[in-house]
Give the backbone structure.
Amino acid sequence: MTRGPRNLLRQIREAMADGGPAQDRLDTVVRIIARSMVAEVCSIYLRRASGELELFATEGLNRAAVHTTRLRPGEGLVGEVARSAEPISLADAPGHPSFSYRPETGEDPYHAFLGAPLLRGGRAIGVLVVQNRAERTYDPDEIEDIQTIAMVLAETVASGELLGQEELRDVEVAPHRPERMKGQRFAEGLAFGHVVLHEAPLAPEKLLADDPVLEEARLHTALHSLKAGIDAMLEVGPSGLSGTPFEVLETYRMFADDRGWNRSLEEAVRSGLTAEAAVDRVRNEHRARFAKARDPYIRERLHDFEDLANRLLRVLAGDKPGERELPEDAILVARNLGPADLLEYPRDRLKGVLLEEGSAASHAGIVARALQIPCVGRLMGLRDRLSDGDLVIADGESGEAYLRPRPEMLEAVQQRIAVREQRRAEFALLRDVPAMTLDGTRITLLSNAGLAVDLDTLDDAGSEGIGLFRTEFQFMVSEELPRLEAQTQLYRRVLDAAGDRPVTFRTLDIGGDKVLPYLDAEREENPALGRRAIRLGLDRPSLLRLQLRALLHAAAGRELRVMFPMIAMVEEFRAAREMVDVECAWARRRGRALPQLLRVGAMIEVPSLLFHLDALLPLTDFVSVGTNDLLQYMYAADRTNPLVSDRYDPLSPPSLRALQEIQTRCAETGTPVSVCGELAGRPLEAFALVTLGYTRLSAPAGGVGPVKRMVLSLDLPAARRGMANLLGSSAGSIRNEVESLARKLNVAV
């Protein structure tokens, strides 16, 4: 064969350009490949929609077998190449245990076998095979050549250049059948629309190079630009990639210098591909290889190479991020997202989000809930099963995604959405109705917030104030530490929007899974139990004092409620409250106005406080129960880890007894207490909280209406009698029993 496949690729390109029937072009292509590779047989198998691999063209085998021979998924050596998505080279194929004899093909005399997958999006859409009579070992150059040819054939098949639209109709170049994927609910809601791939891989428009030397120079220039760009971000901190931790950039830089990756790119270009096609080919190979790994760490490395390849393709294309518009009914599909990534998209066009990774506690999940955008995560392999423009359903109620749904499924979802809209209209009618139980107990319903857009939903939701304003979002979406004036302006705007309604500001809850790229932080083995929230604030007093100063200045002449997160010891609260006193003294000395009323509280979200409430409560003006963290720490189950996050149920006797203990101690000391975790926004869980004695709940804006409807239907004395009987259960969960109690009492849950 000619050194390198450039001459062969040129001949294939000419054969495709000749026109004529698709079968004639296929026959010409296999003939050219067989002659060029000095093989007696060359065959092309393509995947049908059924999953079977059908013989589409052959040179050397019985032509009557074309479109007759079909191999089941995984059957024979051809099926093994497709399954493994890697080339297979054998000197004596009949002796291999996976060999499958098909008499109609007439392949009896052939021993040597070399097969390569036609990869597209990490999936094998077909297999290219060459065979020889004599037993021989194909050398590395030949294996490299057939991979290059297979890559070109995959693109030409998918684009319709090699096959016409009629022939392509039943060839599965991309998944097109309806699929249902089970994931995890990150943000409630229901939506359908058309897929937009976040930072979608750029498909190379031109595969074959006219000038290989020029293409290699383009590749080297792009690689240099890529590395220089990462170096520049490392020098000033990772602000260029919103929400991306500093160590990820260091990992990018390490992989950008990876010798194997660079060498693979260079070899692909030297084989006759354009720089873009070379990157695409190497990306497909890495995707196929890493996707089979069982080790989670190794599988994660796939994403490093994926992102690096996508970035390199954008450099080659000269595109700038953030210039892409959304269709009116966009469902955003991504591997993962940071908060700034999500906020960059037009809110009015973004109907839902589907993620391969992440967790309900991730930044994307929190922002999606704040924006009331349905979000489903942990949908592994999602991107490879979708193409831009595919119709998809994001079911944030069941934690599922429906890809290319059938008409009847879409109709059912539209009906569910109509029901949700009807309920929303009912909730709107309840907006100004006080949340009062049937026996006359007043329940205060507040909203959780953290974004400027949340302020617009206060009136619509009928919230009586903001029970939890997460101040860290301003820090997370900023490229540098927000200055005093910027913080003051935000807090003043929040207070203005709330008017006479109360607002509770939670001081910075960063660290753990919320990393600020512009703050140097040591790598921690267990960040959820590390230096985060109030611990970081006390260790860096200038950071916390700056925020307290901004809060005091913004609330001049008004009521200010400040709450410290993740208090684990009474001493921590004393130290934090002392900082408030220091800042108040600083303001007085300078003649600055102070809040008319200042209340300082603590979040109860660390189990140690359950055994020291007698010391803590007298020091506080109020407390708030953060059920998300409290329960994950109680059960030693990381709520961001999908392997263990479902190991406990909030509606279990231990959880409810702990919540009852907090409420009882607060009632004894006259300490105002609220619940601001996710439980407060779910009608069934809120039903349990109210029966335990909680009369102040802070929920996501979308949960206020459903919880208010529940409250209005609740006979509280009867519910308390029923709940008392359930708390003594030895079961791991009493969810079914709580739900049965609610139904029995005709509570709208």
About this structure: The radius of gyration is 31 Å.
